[in-house]
Specification:
The complex is a heterodimer of chains A (187) and B (123). Chain A has 187 residues and is mainly α. Chain A is 74% helix and 0% strand. Chain A contains 8 helices and no strands. In chain B, 9% of the residues are buried. The chains are: A mainly alpha (187), B mainly alpha (123).
């Protein structure tokens, strides 16, 4: 198989999960697609000639770095926006978050297993729960359980110790379990 | 089952649920375009030492930090050396220098014994 074909097969295999990770990080489809694009471009431009078994970890590291850079740019942008908005009179915003209405009913969101609407609602709640996690906990959780990396690989990608990975994962799972049970979902 | 095992099992289940979330046709189309665009950027034969070093650093983040710290220390050392060299301490005897200015010193006055003798005569 040609190297480019190998890379094409690899990228086709990871693009959906990479997009999912970027969506959790940004909650914005366009930003998530930009992040995936940037990560793939960097891998293709700089590391396409590396052995194929190095690509998964390299790509994950690149992806996490691009997500981190995106957050840094967003923080700087937000700082300027909040500085400028202090000069502009604010209007009341009455829009409510749809998912907040789910939180206040107190009724279990999970319907019968074969109910498509119920499944969609459950997925939306799981999405919200994971998006609410602190950055490092979410990174560790998604790398361990979505990308199915082991603890050592996750530590290499995140640039931290294996103990830190276990701590982040444990806290993430604890927070998710509490949040989902509050919403009536048994994790 | 310990709490860690319970959390592990829960994480695995949630991971599978997340993975099962489908992407829309439009998202799939965009991702396909992104992939195609990335593959066009593949540069053949790019296995330089710098690329290898970068790949190694990605795999060893702690070593990457140490490498960066060492590079910074080396840079500070080089800057210090350059600064020191641009301001050398005076190696010219002050007395001979003064005599030079007054045009009273013979040409071979740089010899240490004659310079010392000149200093002796003065005192």
């Amino acid at each position: 198989m040609e190297p480019t074909e190998n890379l094409s097969a690899f990228l086709a295999g990871i693009e959906r999960r990479a997009f999912r990770q970027a969506m959790f990080a940004t909650q914005n489809q366009e930003a998530a697609l930009d992040i995936v694009q940037e990560a793939m471009l960097k891998l293709a431009e700089h590391y396409a000639q590396r052995p194929a078994d190095e690509w998964p970890l390299l790509f994950q590291r690149i992806l996490q770095n691009v997500i981190r850079d995106h957050h840094r740019r967003s923080r700087v942008r937000s700082m300027w926006i909040s500085l400028l908005s202090a000069l502009v009179p604010q209007r009341d915003d009455d829009e409510a978050n749809l998912l907040d209405s789910l939180a206040t009913t107190g009724e279990p969101a999970f319907a019968a297993p074969d109910d498509e609407t119920g499944r969609r609602q459950t997925r939306a709640i799981i999405d919200t729960a994971i998006a609410r996690l602190p950055l490092r906990q979410r990174q560790a959780f998604l790398l361990r359980y979505l990308e199915e990396l082991d603890v050592a690989q996750t530590a290499a990608v995140m640039g931290c110790s294996e103990g830190s990975v276990k701590t982040h994962c444990s806290r993430a799972c604890h927070t998710l379990a509490a949040w989902l049970e509050e919403k009536g979902i048994r994790p | 089952m310990s709490m860690n095992d319970h959390y592990d099992a829960m994480g695995t289940r949630l991971g599978r649920d997340i993975d099962a979330i489908p992407t829309s046709p439009r998202q799939q189309q965009r991702l396909h375009a992104i992939r195609t665009n990335a593959l066009e950027r593949v540069r053949p034969g790019r296995t330089g030492r710098l690329a290898s070093l970068r790949a190694w650093c990605f795999s060893h983040p702690a070593a990457e930090r140490r490498l960066a710290q060492s590079a910074l220390a080396l840079l500070v050392l080089c800057a210090g050396l350059a600064l020191w060299q641009s301001h050398p301490s005076s190696y010219i005897d002050d007395e001979v220098d003064a005599q030079l200015l007054a045009d009273e010193v013979p040409v071979d006055a740089w010899l240490s014994d004659q310079a010392s003798a000149l200093g002796g005569e003065r005192s």
